[in-house]
Amino acid sequence: MNGHEREQRFGEIYLTMRDRLYRLCRGYLYEPAEAEDLFQEVMANIWHSLPRFRGEAGLGTWAYRVAVNTALLYNRQLIRRRPSWEPDMPVPVTPSPEDAASRTQLLDRLRRCISRLSGADRLLVSFLLEEMTYREMADILGISVNHVGVRINRVKRKLETCMRGNHGQHTD
């Protein structure tokens, strides 16, 4: 792949997938600043990996695989650098009408529950929020469609348990 072709493919990925890749990073990491750092690392890894793109999968599927692998590695490095999240941390809520505050608290609680999932489970949640098909998820993760369904059901049960207040340990 020559330099022009590489720039063209990177530009295509950036223009068509940047929002989805950023949402994947944001869904994977609770803190926005960390998600931004991860997004930058994902884009750098896509750039550096483009010469190895063989076209066996679609460009979007390939970019998601790079993003998933980057996120998993990033999370391992992040865990080594800082202590684990404390479940009793106060939840900051912006002053607003009561119903909006309640919704904000509920969404924040859901984000915290998602942040407690294993890295692979957080990625599945991100894929669901992107409205990917089970087939697309299976292709990206390199598992069967049935296994995707099983894992999604397990993730849903974990989130339901956490949202009901039965906080389990972080599963990474």
SSE topology sketch:
Elements: H1 3-28, H2 32-49, H3 59-81, H4 98-116, H5 119-129, H6 134-141, H7 145-163
Helix pairs in contact: 1-2, 1-3, 1-5, 2-3, 3-6, 4-7, 6-7
Can you put this structure into words, describing what you see?
- With 172 residues, this protein is an all-alpha fold.
- The chain has two domains: 1-84, RNA polymerase sigma factor, region 2, helix turn helix motif (Rna Polymerase Sigma Factor, Chain: A), CATH 1.10.1740.10; 93-172, Arc Repressor Mutant, subunit A (Orthogonal Bundle).
- It is built from seven helices and no strands.
- Helix 1 packs across helix 3 (59-81), helix 3 packs across helix 6 and helix 4 crosses helix 7 (145-163).
- It is globular, with a radius of gyration of 17 Å.
- It starts with a helix and ends in a 9-residue tail after the last helix.
- Mean pLDDT is 80; it is low at 83-96 and 168-172.
| Low-confidence runs | 83-96, 168-172
Average of pLDDT: 80
Question: Using DSSP, what is the number of strands?
Answer: 0
- Can you identify the CATH superfamily of the largest domain? RNA polymerase sigma factor, region 2, helix turn helix motif
Count of discrete domains? 2
Content of β-strand:
under 5%
Shape: globular
Order of helices and strands: HHHHHHH
Main β-sheet description: none
Q: Would you identify the CATH architecture of the largest domain?
A: Orthogonal Bundle
Which fold name is given in CATH as the topology of the largest domain?
Rna Polymerase Sigma Factor, Chain: A
Contiguous helical run count: 7
